[in-house]
């Protein structure tokens, strides 16, 4: 491929990258005829790709360094870049390895190609449902690199790190004099950016990609899209402290301190998920949990209703037992002897205690008048002419009527027994 075609391919792709990094990629592309050894010597880094997962205790460290490309090739190696497919493969291996308890994405990147970044971010979000995935930004986490970081369970950054550059850019090259003839059925196959219509079409594509970027960041970070648009730099980058205040990261820290913290965490803590992560990643499980909670709440409410009903019945039973004890305590009291009609009247008053009835009966002569209840009526007229029997509690008129009926029956039985005794 000629130098012109390589440059055209670069300019024709959408990038989520800082301007300086994109310019560096263009500079490398213009040196296509330079020997790999010369490129290696000039750039001061080995040709061999050294971006490999490193185990630090139980933490798998996956580097995400340099410009980001969709696939690995010679160009990504000589430019010190990282490819999405290599990171995805390393991520899968770390998730499947039982020795790995936490995954750390060690990010220092200006961003890269828009193609493939959303897919890798989705893989990262899926991985954090199985193991904690922490993104650490020590130098730069811009554009596509921040897109990837936002999908992690937690983002930690150094206070001097630069984060943000949330947006998409596309390079527009100039014609090199080569003539092209495009099929008449496909007028937009070669959009001319020099025309208003051409620029509008390119702008629409870039804006749509940026909308996807912003929506993903909002979802992964648990913010609304309006918050991301207003507070995440609007395409600019922020230092670590500013990024934390804006909600772009979770906390400040150092790489080694983070490694020590992850290794010290208990396994149960490592696997904890936030409510937002659970809702975003496992909506079906959330619905199942809600259904089970609803069923449990309904069962608990039913049990409480049954218990309340049983308590009411027990209270009624206890109340009836107490009432029987009170009534018998009055009519069988020593002071009731010779004052039986009065005792029955007093027992028929629900608020009358045994002690109170005994006091009244003790102060009443045994023979004050003839006829059933005469002594009670006389005493009441003397003490308090307006005293009446208490109204039934809780409106339980039927129960009170039955009770009074029983009292009348008891009175009739006593009267009958008295008459029988006189006859004998």
What do you see in this structure?
The chain is an alpha/beta fold. It folds into two domains: 3-281, 2-enoyl-CoA Hydratase, Chain A, domain 1 (Alpha-Beta Complex), CATH 3.90.226; 292-423, no CATH class. Helices cover 54% and strands 12% of the residues. α14 packs parallel to α16 (354-362). Residues 36-50 and 381-389 have low confidence and may be disordered.
Task: Supply the CATH architecture of the largest domain.
Answer: Alpha-Beta Complex
**Distance N terminus to C terminus?**
138 Å
- Give the CATH level 1 class of the largest domain: Alpha Beta
Please tally the helical runs, counting DSSP H or I stretches of 4 or more residues. 18
Pairing-aware structural class of the strands and helices? alpha/beta
Shape: elongated
Low-pLDDT segments, ≥5 res: 36-50, 381-389
- Number of DSSP-assigned strands: 13
- Tell me the number of structural domains: 2
Overall pLDDT confidence: 78
Strand coverage percent: 5-15%
What's the name of the CATH homologous superfamily of the largest domain? 2-enoyl-CoA Hydratase, Chain A, domain 1
The largest sheet, given as strand count, sense and whether it forms a barrel, is: 8 strands, mixed
CATH topology of the largest domain: 2-enoyl-CoA Hydratase, Chain A, domain 1
**What's the alpha carbon Rg, rounded to whole Å?**
44 Å
Task: Provide the helix percentage.
Answer: 40-55%
